[in-house]
Design brief:
The complex is a heterodimer of chains A (about 170) and B (about 525). Chain A contains 7 helices and 5 strands; from the N terminus they run ααααβααββββα. Chain A is an alpha+beta fold. A 5-stranded mixed sheet of chain A has the order 2-3-1-4-5. The C terminus of chain B is likely disordered. Chain B starts with a strand and ends in a 14-residue tail after the last helix. In chain B, the strands form 4 sheets. In chain B, strands 2-1-3-4-5 form a 5-stranded mixed sheet, covered by helices on one side. Classes of the chains: A alpha+beta (about 170), B alpha/beta (about 525).
């Protein structure tokens, strides 16, 4: 495996109210616009800034509490930016059957980063995910959006060192 | 010119299909050979991915699994039978011949985004047929096929459609549930990547049948490849009359769009999915009212799984009887079985209902990937039962699974070798339920956490008999009083583990989760 082929560092612009409002206005007219708006904001800024909440509430004519409720319900929406690289590791049954739990223990011990956390140098976020739909080629991970199957300890070590070496 | 076929399915790409494609092109260029690489869906033989197929006068010859490093030797061997990865004529492969590919007829054969390929392989015939029939006749055709909801509940699709057809409303909706969150399942993903036009055609037929003019396909965010393919296929379908103001020039309108989930497992539950589509928290609704009468935005709504809707074009094109002729008992037609986990030959096999777990695991799957003995099999996703190696004669059929205190679910089968500990798996079932609970009903929200604690006590040897009784009592409460299948079926993996593997629950000093 050549880990470099998979690594695509996340680049997001800093939160900008005018840009956020433009995104919201562009999508607000469709039925059930809340999720498409939240996805678009996260795509642009890397997370859902709390300053976007009143803008969404105003545009969709709902309360701020309702917007907050939706953001916090779904696992995908971030409250803070992720690291430059994101590694999602499937912890569901099929991957368990192929030893993902020992891979996770190895990562936490060898690389000093806990599941659900971002490294101090902000280079890498590691997260749990429950099923990537690659269950015949378990264990599976998603690295910067690229699906990798039949992943082993050496490959994970390589992915993590590539991600962390990217720090300037 | 040599024509080479290679899958673009996410599973194939996950083990290097894109790099193999690049390597093939580079090697051909270096040899000044003229080749054409066609990216198709997957045949489902995921253990053989990346699967490279070469077109010959006698059909397609397959090689797999091909690593980028194997490319050079394939050319050197002239893509002949002398190569170690040679699998022969793909259509004659034993694991292809045992299948009856209705829903996956085109997957692995055609370019998923070629309308010409689609039509040349029978695509569009179902919709064309439906447009010559009355809506009631279309609904009755689907009912007569015996098709049952492939999402897990197994509710007859025709009856659902009949209810929506009978509802009076200015606007009705078709919603496709592509929130395939069950571990061990990937049929929806493969269909959306390998033959997305088939799903679009199925949704259009549903629209024609019940009088709905708009549809949504709600795809989980964990499936970026499927989202891209469906979005591109919808554009393609619009340009070619499979969607739009006048389906195939008939004057009947139907259009649709992709909506993306946000990582909530519970949104695979139909009412939670509808809430999510409306832009709300994915909190389960109490039924009644049925979505068929008051669904998306309060409109009468057909909400079906990808596999149910994708089976419809074949049924319309070939007739209900041809579909009903296959299967066993009240489970008619085919089931795309997904064989996963610790298995040598994992993949998707579309089979008539009725194959036993033993045939599936050994004859098709070739046993475990680790080479160790099979200890447990979970059927039907995280809410399905764990069966032991002594229960492998159960056939895959809705009723037979229920009789064995399990459920068929979405047709996923996850195999575990003898290193698995079933108390740990039961604990995980509760843990998962606690993470994913929508929080609306108490048995699921609180019971899941109490369940984790109770299993911890049992394996720690704290009053095991008393706590086992308490665990069973908790399971009864969750089964009877939860609002939806998440809380209601979590006891299935828990109690099957407890009943089928009691030895794993004997007190230990260390916790099972380690």
């Amino acid at each position: 495996m050549q880990a470099k082929h998979y690594a695509t560092a996340q680049a997001h612009s800093p939160f900008d109210e005018i840009q956020a409002q433009a995104i919201i206005t562009h999508l607000a007219d469709q039925p059930g616009a809340m999720l498409p708006i939240l996805h678009a904001l996260q795509e642009a800024f890397g997370f859902i800034d709390s300053r976007a909440v009143p803008l969404i509430a105003e545009s969709l004519n709902v309360s701020k509490a309702e917007v907050h409720g939706v953001i916090t319900f779904y696992h995908d929406f971030r409250h803070a930016p992720a690291g430059r690289h994101v590694l999602k590791i499937c912890r569901a049954e099929a991957c368990q059957s192929m030893g993902v739990e020992s891979l996770v223990s190895h990562i936490e011990q060898a690389h000093g980063v806990k599941m659900g956390q971002t490294t101090a140098d902000n280079s890498l976020t590691i997260e749990n995910v429950y099923c990537l739909g690659n269950c015949a080629l378990s264990p599976a991970v998603l690295f910067d959006g690229a699906l990798i199957g039949r992943v082993d300890q050496d490959q994970l070590d390589e992915l993590i060192s590539v991600a962390r070496a990217g720090v300037q | 010119m040599m024509k080479i076929y290679l899958s673009l399915d996410a599973a194939a790409v996950s083990v290097g299909a894109d790099r193999v494609a690049k390597g093939l092109q580079a090697e051909a260029d270096a040899r000044k050979m003229d080749i054409q690489i066609v990216r198709t869906g997957s045949r489902g033989l995921l253990w053989a991915e990346p699967l490279v197929e070469v077109e010959t006068a006698a059909g397609r010859i397959a090689f797999g699994p091909v690593k980028p490093a194997d490319v050079k030797s394939l050319f050197e061997a002239g893509f002949s039978a002398s190569h170690a990865l040679h699998l022969g004529h793909i259509e004659d492969h034993a694991l292809m011949k045992i299948q009856q590919r209705f829903t996956f007829a085109r997957s692995g054969i055609t370019d998923p985004l070629s309308i010409d390929d689609y039509r040349a392989h029978g695509g569009g015939a179902g919709l064309a047929k439906a447009l010559t029939m009355t809506p009631r006749d279309v609904v009755e055709e689907v009912a007569a096929s015996g098709l049952r909801g492939r999402g897990g509940a197994g509710f007859p699709t025709g009856i659902k459609w009949r209810t929506v057809l009978g509802a009076v409303a200015e606007q009705k909706c078709i919603v496709c549930n592509a929130d395939e969150g069950d571990s061990g399942t990937f049929a929806d993903r493969m269909l959306m990547e390998g033959d997305p036009l088939c799903l679009i055609e199925g949704m259009a037929i549903a629209g024609v049948a019940v009088g709905a003019t708009y549809g949504y396909v709600y795809i989980r965010s964990e499936y970026p490849h499927a989202i891209r393919m469906m979005t591109a296929a919808i554009d393609l379908a619009r340009k070619n009359g499979l969607l739009g103001r006048s389906l195939l020039g008939s004057g009947v309108a139907f259009d649709m769009e992709v909506r993306v989930g946000a990582g909530a497992y519970v949104c695979g539950e139909e009412t939670s999915l509808l809430e999510s589509l409306e832009g709300k928290r994915g909190v389960v609704r109490a039924k009644p009212p049925l979505p068929a009468l008051k669904g998306l935005f309060g409109k009468p709504t057909v909400i079906n799984n990808v596999m149910s809707l994708a089976a419809v074009p074949w049924i319309l094109a070939h007739g209900a009887q041809a579909y009903a002729d296959v299967g066993m008992g009240r489970s008619r037609g085919t089931l795309p079985v997904q064989l996963a986990g610790n298995i040598k030959r994992g993949g998707l096999y579309e089979l008539a209902f009725g194959i036993t777990l033993r045939e599936l695991i050994y004859d098709i799957g070739g046993g475990t990937a680790s080479g160790r003995p099979v200890k447990a099999v979970q059927v039907g996703g995280p809410l399905g039962a764990y069966f032991s190696d002594k229960q492998l004669d159960i056939p895959l059929d809705y009723e037979a699974m229920l009789a064995a205190k399990g459920m068929l679910g979405h047709g996923g089968v996850v195999v575990f070798d003898d290193t698995v500990n079933l108390a740990a798996q039961a604990r995980f079932a509760f843990e998962f339920c606690a993470i994913e609970s929508c929080g609306k009903c108490t048995p699921c929200r609180i019971g899941s956490t109490r369940g984790v604690e109770t299993i911890d006590k049992i394996v720690a040897g704290i009053e095991p008999a008393k706590n086992t009784a308490l665990l069973n009592d908790l399971c009864t409460t969750m089964t009877d009083a939860s609002l939806c299948a998440l809380g209601g079926l979590t006891p299935l993996p828990v109690q099957s583990a407890l009943n089928n593997f009691p030895e794993d629950f004997r007190p230990r000093t260390a916790l099972a989760a380690e």
